[in-house]
Amino acid sequence: MKMPGSLFLTGPMGAGKSTIGRQLARRLKLPFHDSDQEIEQRTGVDIALIFELEGEAGFRKREKAVIDELTQLPNIILATGGGAILDPENRQHLTSRGTVIYLHASVAQQLRRTGRDRNRPLLQTANPRATLEQLMAIREPLYREAANIIIDTDGMRVTDVVRQIISQFKNT
Predict the structure, then answer these.
(1) Is 120 in contact with 14 (CB distance < 8 Å)?
(2) Is the pLDDT at 38 greater than 60, yes or no?
């Protein structure tokens, strides 16, 4: 099986990008990176505090720099933040430097997976479902446009998603 360089996982919060990315990296024996974790390590604070202190614009500026840097690394698995796809430069870096895998998750699935997570600043609202629906309306076309591969993660186990991703490259 020939892997096409780096694999970049995109999709909404709760799609499983980090969990699937870690397992995929283990199976393929490649380094794993998570853009949100990288930002937290560099700043020494969590994403929620960055949002609180700098707003979404400040966070996105940090995210853009990290994605530019990480996508230049050879043969990695990268899990991006759900909103990384919003920036045209991020999309360009992702699509030109590796294979983009869109991990789709329905709003219902996202709610099940993120419902109790207090570290998701965009969901700290009276109506998380409405927020997720609004985010998907804006981001879904961008995820699809950038994707080389689309995988629906609803109801799937991590191992099954990883197997499905790897199967995409068996005959290449």
Answers:
(1) no
(2) yes
